[in-house]
From TrEMBL:
One of its GO terms (molecular function) is oxidoreductase activity. Pfam families: Molybdopterin. Gene3D superfamilies: 2.40.40.20, 3.40.50.740, ADC-like domains, Dimethylsulfoxide Reductase, domain 2. Keywords: 4Fe-4S, Iron, Iron-sulfur, Metal-binding, Molybdenum, Oxidoreductase, Signal. InterPro entries: Asp_de-COase-like_dom_sf, Mopterin_OxRdtase, Phenylacetyl-CoA-OR_N, Prok_Mopterin_Oxidored. This is Molybdopterin-dependent oxidoreductase. It comes from Sedimenticola selenatireducens. The keyword Ligase does not apply. Residues 70-625 form the Molybdopterin oxidoreductase domain.
Amino acid sequence: MTQESPTGKTKIPTYCYQCVAGPDLLNVRVEDGIATEIQPNFGAADCTPAGGKVCVKAFGLIQKVYNPHRILTPMKRTNPKKGREEDPKFVPISWDEALDAIAEKVNKIQAEGKIDAAGYPRVAASFGGGGTSTYYMGTFPAFLSTLTPIDMGFGSGQGVKCYHSEHLYGELWHRAFIVAPDTPKCEYIISFGMNIEASGGVCGVRRHADARDRGVKRIQVEPHLSQTGAASSEWVPIKPKTDPAFMYALIHVLLHEQRDRLDKVFLRDRTGSPYLVAPNGYYLRDPETKKPLVYDLKTKQAVPFDTANIEPALEGQFVLSGIELGADDDRWEHQDIKVTTAFEKLIEHMKPFTPLWAARVCDVDNKIIRRIALEYLDHAKVGETIEVDGRTMPLRPVAVTLGKTVNNGWGGYHCCWARTMLAVLVGALEVPGGTIGTTVRINRPASDRNDSVKLSEDGFLAYPMNPTDKENWLATPDVRNANRTLVPLVGNSAWSQALGPTHLAWMQQDKGPDHWPQATKPDLWFVYRTNPAVSFWDTNQITKTIATFPFTVCFAYTRDETNHMADILLPDRTDLEGLQLIRIGGTKFIEQFWDHQGFALRQPVTEPQGDTRDFTWISTELAKRCNMLEQYNKALNRGAAGVALKTDKYDFSLDVTQEHDVETIWDANCKAASAEITGGKEQQGLDYYKEKGYRLTDFPRIKWYLTAKMEDEGVRYELPYQETLKRVGVQLGRRLHEKGISWWDEQLEEYEALPDMMDFQALWEGALERNFGVDISDYPFWLVTSRSMQYAWGGNVSIQMIREVSKNIGTHGGLVMNTGRAHKMGLKDGDRVEITSPLSATRGILVTREGIRPDTLMLMGQFDHWATPFAKDFNVPSMNALVPMLLDLTDSSGSGADLARVKIKKIGEAK
Ligand SMILES: Nc1nc2c(c(=O)[nH]1)N[C@H]1C(S)=C(S)[C@@H](COP(=O)(O)OP(=O)(O)OC[C@H]3O[C@@H](n4cnc5c(=O)[nH]c(N)nc54)[C@H](O)[C@@H]3O)O[C@H]1N2
Ligand SMILES: Nc1nc2c(c(=O)[nH]1)N[C@H]1C(S)=C(S)[C@@H](COP(=O)(O)OP(=O)(O)OC[C@H]3O[C@@H](n4cnc5c(=O)[nH]c(N)nc54)[C@H](O)[C@@H]3O)O[C@H]1N2
Ligand code: SF4
Ligand SMILES: [Mo]
């Protein structure tokens, strides 16, 4: 029997944003007030890239609501001792008691000063899930904005282990926080460990399935055969962490064997290739305007790059005069010196990296590497065009994608640079069919990549680099991970702290580096939708450190390993219970490219469970109790909940002196959203969105490709030559050395104009040998990790139905090892083994498979829970306890990779 739900509906529209591959729209069927079924939203089939469907994870949301292990009332800890072995002895308390306790802490901090004696914020906050928490935390950002400065730099799994290098370099070169193929038009994809069939969500899977239907050829280069490898045209089992060599060899073939077939017009007009490089490695510049010079083949002289009607030389060496501007005030005046185009420098630089050389490094046949380079070039169709929204654009249907491990730690810079160069050489960057960007996060405005395009003095995209000059360098870090001090590229946006070397914040708690401020603990730490005690590196150490924090407030859905150390647990309303309006459409990661943009509402589909509260209610209550109501309301009016409530076209602003209930706040946001979408004409509020679920307007496809805007604004891509990074690196080095700091010297070496190849495997091995005094040959295996389609990190591990579905995929069950190698070692499928890294050891069941290199082992996902109900009984190990946090394994961008060296030993027979 079907009855009406509390909102008078039996089918209620809402969204899922449980993973970064969303958001996706869905309907929830409600019977007798009980949510019973997740359904696709086929009403949105024509306007969502996933055709109105959701992935398997969304179907777990029903069990999430009714999970018997949920925390349903606020709790406080009664055991003052914290630690894994301590029972927190949580007892239920009222919301009043919980919120007053937090407000008391905040008010004390406000009175004492927001910054502690070491110069760090007393309040810290960590959020997880690659930024998806924002789509569930209602108006909490508005409350947090009243407490600033806040330390958001305690690593939470996302950031430094995630798509890190790509975030920074992608934004630098093409406003691409995440990079994707233009899958609907692409014909040839080389994927270096990008596991799109598991990690791309319903939209990624749909786009790639359609592409296969069209005949796309995808080459999956990775040490273990993932779902993506299995669904690709070809699997190339490369040695872990040798991807840069493979990519350099591809570039070598293009430059040294096929140069005439490259897109020379794109290189000349849309990149810094023709810029002239002077003897000290900086551009030759015009003494008056200081503009970089190019050699004009028409007038046979050096002219500023932006001179009209010129034909800049792409290749060659010239004898010319000009000035060179180096780091700080370094300046050279040159008369008749030899200068070379940046492109010529590149040709020279890539000379040694032949396929034969790479074959030895990567353990991949050189014929395969050369064939892939040629296939890439053939498919690039250099010279072809296509019309998009009435504009003729180049059509270059080839792309290179990078997975999260390829993206991180040493080699990340090389991979990102090489991937972007592979696009640039054939004119396939930011054009139809090619390698394109999705979101922008570090540059402003974050709402539209096209709007963030700004011309720099040198003719490239202007980038908000953190200053490294003497006057402006942030010598004393403002947060514990020192992101703006150590990583100029991280910028200074709302996301920058989470993208700094976030392990530094944890590591220093144990022992800080030389000449560095004394590490302090945050007086108050907020945690939501992240579980660093399971998701980060060296989880044993992280757990111990978390236990030393004096006052931790965790929003809690169930008990978990991080909130085991909390002082207060606050039960929020989960995905199907809370109210929130978010922006959807446009271009978002991972492959959410829409032809529409607009808003979607998340709404309660059923009565909330227990005494859980809406995040917006919690935020308003906290603001009130912390005497911050007025600032909080002002933040909401400015748009802290997603939409500015007042512009020159409309005014739905809230009275800042009054407390507003949850529905009033979202009604104002809904009205502002309607007005924004209709240019101020319409103003439908919450009721409209509750009924329809979403509202869209067009998003022109031309905006998927930055090149149109770049052409219009006369902006070039800053490739191949990294003159800016080189200067920034020298300056940063001087600043650090002036303070006596030498522990960042290896990172400084990465600031090269053309990244030099390194032996990345040896770098890893050396770091482990040095730091642990081991002989690395005792640890013969590389241990890697891989995504599961069913799980969103550790976020849905406590859902029974998800566990059931995932059991159909055997690699969830334990340590995946090559069958032949196992036999040689006298091991078989199902054996119990101990897995030991130089840092620590863990145990698991052996799963033997042909689809993995003999020198590689794989542990899927991030399990190893010991407090999370249900998941704590999985008995599946994770690599996270085995991977150390080391400065030696941190690259200049501040990231490291989910990678370990291990040995294994049998400890029990297969049953
Ligand atoms: N071994 C291994 N480790 C990894 C990775 C890997 O591939 N392998 N990947 C890394 C990457 S790329 C990332 S981005 C990070 C992600 O790591 P984290 O961001 O730390 O994410 P989770 O581990 O999913 O933690 C989410 C927590 O939120 C809780 N939660 C879920 N829903 C709700 C809710 O509605 N309300 C509340 N209050 N809490 C909720 C869950 O119970 C869980 O404890 O992990 C990293 N760690
Ligand atoms: N279902 C689901 N989707 C997700 C997430 C989730 O938790 N669940 N998380 C989201 C987030 S935050 C992220 S960061 C993305 C991550 O998305 P992906 O980058 O696609 O993630 P992984 O599957 O962890 O890693 C990809 C592959 O890298 C390979 N690999 C490991 N080491 C190397 C190496 O040295 N070289 C090469 N070539 N390959 C290597 C592994 O075999 C693995 O299959 O997924 C997002 N999407
Ligand atoms: S892909 Fe991610 S956001 Fe989309 S339905 Fe699945 S879990 Fe939800
Ligand atoms: Mo991630």
